[in-house]
Specification:
With about 500 residues, the protein is an alpha+beta fold. The protein contains 17 helices and 22 strands. Strands 3-2-4-1-10-9-11 form a 7-stranded antiparallel sheet. The chain has a 6-stranded antiparallel sheet with strand order 5-6-7-8-12-13. Strands 17-16-20-21-22 form a 5-stranded parallel sheet, with helices on both faces. Strand 2 (about 30-40) and strand 3 form a beta hairpin. Helix 4 crosses helix 5 (about 125-140), helix 5 crosses helix 6 and helix 9 packs antiparallel against helix 14 (about 440-445). The two termini are about 35 Å apart.
Length: about 500
């Protein structure tokens, strides 16, 4: 997953993009980047690291212009090298920069065809560079000296015909304007808003509405599946659905884990959806164990807190904060290598012993992926003196890899793959394992927007909503994403970096 933002304004946009990226930091902590445009020139800064590490005062001073795009990255495809940081740009036609959230499932095939047929060279392993070149090629084929909105939309229509997967993208065309588009299934989120100033109306597109909020933009609406929005340099807005056979099928995991609770995604409040998830969990507890002996409900911070509090309320049980979180440790399920993940869990959370001593504890987490975090947390709860440790997940069992932009591991590395709920409970060491039912999770979101008729639920049921995934693709994905492969890739990049430093010295 990644976070993207784009702005067309009446004054310099560098600070506003920086602020937006800081509140989208949860969507990507590996790298950050920004491109601004003044006249017909791009000004680019990108590197590995957090937003406040990548952009220093000297960089911000050079990022001039009234139009720009930004990106924060988790490496779901390609390597974690700084060369893979976004945005990417090409010089022809016009000069185009692009930032992308998601994953193209046919990226390898597209890259091969572009080299042989489109005569375009792909310089990295990033599917974002592939997407950029597909769009640039199709826009060039329009053959316009001064492209108009209809030319942008025609090019995006061809992108939809050629590219499969889940994606949201924002592109900037030098001297002309900004373009944003969302995949035909609406898997990855994208919204836009406006801000009135004394010099005129300014526009922003972003992965989540919270990026609009913090900069004073009024949310207009979400970009529809298969829709493109084009904002020219004068602030004129054009929109068009450019894809055929569209449907709104957002990623269900966005509401469980990825998005900030203060965001709206497809008109659904993430906070309220998580409240309903907690209520559904409580109802399941009462169905399965009406005479439960739970003394206290404790959330595993931070994402599950909303669900845990609502669960406790519905059960009539005390809610307590039982873990203190070190906020300087990243999300552990994405960290490469089991050893690193185990060390990070211990550094990330520390229990408050008084809340566990001699109590039957119900721990609530948003989900369980590899189970590394869960098993150690159960162990910590027991060490802190809990009589019994129950474990509830606000999401159903995660059994299959994600292919649309979330770096979930190979199926064999998912703790629930090939196991029953009780077997997962035994693996993590809890006394009772409770998963959310998939239908209940869907209902928790749909209650906020009844127009949502479908979801991307692939991580739970193995059904890939774009209909573009087969066993061969999943096998290739497994080879690229398992811990052994990531270890080799990380070592190769480390050696490459060391060799470069040696040559410089």
């Amino acid at each position: 997953m990644c976070g993207i933002v784009g702005i067309v304004a009446k004054s310099y946009v560098n600070q506003t993009i920086f602020d937006a990226l800081t509140v989208l930091q949860h969507r990507g902590q590996d790298a950050a980047g920004m491109v601004t445009c003044e006249g017909n020139k791009f000004f680019l800064r990108k590197d590995n690291g957090l937003v406040n590490e990548v952009f220093r005062t000297r960089h911000m001073k050079r990022l001039v212009g009234n139009m720009g795009i930004g990106h924060v990255r988790y490496p779901t495809a390609g390597s974690s090298s700084s060369a893979e940081a976004q945005p990417f740009y090409v010089n022809s036609p016009y000069g185009i920069a692009l930032a992308h959230n998601g994953n193209l499932t046919n990226a390898d095939d597209l890259a091969d065809k572009m080299f042989r047929a489109d005569l375009r060279h792909i310089n990295t392993t990033s599917d974002s560079e592939v997407l950029l070149n597909v769009f640039a090629h199709e826009l060039q084929l329009q053959g316009k000296l001064q492209p108009q909105a209809e030319d942008m939309f025609a090019a995006v229509g061809r992108v939809y015909e050629r590219c499969t997967g889940g994606y949201a993208a924002v592109a900037m065309i030098t001297g002309y304007g900004m373009l944003a588009f969302r995949d035909p299934n609406g898997i990855r989120p994208l919204t836009y808003g406006k801000r009135e100033t004394e010099n005129g109306t300014e526009y922003m597109v972003a992965s989540e509405s919270v990026a609009l909020d913090i900069s004073g933009f009024e949310r207009v609406r979400d970009i529809e599946p298969g829709e493109a929005i084009y904002i020219d340099m004068d602030g004129n807005v054009f929109t068009q659905v450019c894809a055929e056979n569209t449907q709104l099928a957002p990623c269900l995991f966005e509401y469980v884990y990825l998005a900030r609770p203060d965001s709206l995604i497809d008109d659904v409040s993430v906070h309220k959806a998580r409240m309903r998830m907690g209520k559904k969990l409580a109802e399941k507890v009462l169905r399965e164990r009406p005479d439960h002996d739970i003394d206290v409900v404790i959330a595993i911070p931070d994402t599950s807190r909303t669900s845990a509090m609502e669960m406790a309320k519905e059960l009539g049980v005390i809610y307590r904060e039982g873990f203190i979180k070190n906020r300087y440790i990243g999300r552990t399920f994405i960290m490469p290598g089991q050893t690193l993940r185990k060390k990070s869990v211990r550094r990330k959370l520390n229990p408050i012993g008084l809340e566990f001593q001699d109590k039957v504890v119900m721990l609530v987490d948003d989900s369980i992926v590899r189970g590394t975090t869960s098993s150690q947390i159960v162990e910590m709860a027991r060490d802190a003196g809990a009589k019994k440790v129950y474990f509830a997940s606000a999401a159903p069992a995660v059994k299959y890899p994600n292919v649309y932009g979330i770096d979930m591991p190979a199926a064999e590395e998912l703790i629930a793959h090939g196991r029953t709920d009780d077997e997962v409970g035994e693996e993590i060491g809890c006394d009772w394992m409770l998963y959310q039912d998939l239908d209940d999770l869907k209902d928790s979101v749909v209650e906020g927007n009844e127009n949502i008729k479908a979801f991307d639920t692939c991580v739970f049921d193995g059904k890939y909503v774009a209909g573009d995934v087969d066993d061969a693709y999943l096998n290739r994905l497994k080879e690229a994403r398992n811990d052994a492969a990531k270890g080799k890739k990380g070592q190769a990049e480390s050696n490459k970096s060391s060799n470069l430093c040696s040559k410089i010295d």
